[in-house]
Amino acid sequence: MDFTFVSGNLGLDLAGTIGHRRGARIDLLPTPADLARWTVRAGLLDGPPEVGADDLARAAALREAIYRLATAAREGVPYGKGDRDVLNEFAGRPPADVALAERGLRRDGGLPGALSTTARAAIELLGGPQAGLIRECEAAPCTRLYVDASHRRTRRWCDMRGCGNRAKAAAFRARTGA
User: What is the block-wise mean pLDDT of the chain (178 residues), using blocks of 10 residues?
Assistant: First the structure.
């Protein structure tokens, strides 16, 4: 399974690497190599960093803290101190290095920099006015969180090409008996 980046925020995209949270969970980062690949696909680093089992466990802790904090924002309840501490600890490290190279952008900084950049993106979202725009995909069994930046704030699905298309096709079949 490949990664998708449809949440509108890098932190929510990391949280989205666990799918179907209320059912048969799907972990898109089961191995250190998967996490390394995610950092490149997310545009955080130019090449895969070294990632060990401990690094994967720390990234999973960040992922779950972001998910719980985003869920709290969505539900309008205060942020938990433990999750805030985890997020702030990651964000307190130096972010990924970005520089203009001879032929374009260069991104480096290893896994710590990539996770710091991700945590900082989550903080910007959760601490700003867009925290009130966090939604959960309405398509079962998807549980992806996303920022509803639509004009009327009526977006229902994390991604129109995937969940939205499936939901609309199912509704059409139900209406027409097809």
Answer: 90 96 93 98 97 98 98 97 98 96 93 98 98 92 92 82 67 70
163: nearest Cα among 142, 145, 149, 177: 142
Q: Read out DSSP for 38-89?
A: HHHHTTS-SSPPP--HHHHHHHHHHHHHHHHHHHHHHHT-PPPHHHHHHHHH
CA–CA gap between residue 134 and residue 85 (Å, rounded): 21
Asked if the structure places residue 166 within a domain, the reply is no
Residue 74 belongs to a domain with what CATH number?
Answer: 1.10.3300.10
Whole-angstrom distance, CA of residue 109 vs CA of residue 90? 14
Residue 76 is encoded by which pair of tokens? 């309008």
Q: Would you say residue 146 lies in a domain? A: no
Per the CB < 8 A criterion, the answer to whether 47 and 110 are in contact is no
Residue 151 falls within a domain, yes or no? no
- Of residues 22, 35, 15, the one with CA closest to residue 125: 15
Q: Could you tell me if 6 and 41 are in contact, meaning their C-beta atoms sit under 8 angstroms apart?
A: no
Conformational region of residue 109, where left means phi above 0, alpha means psi within -120 to 50, and beta covers everything else: left
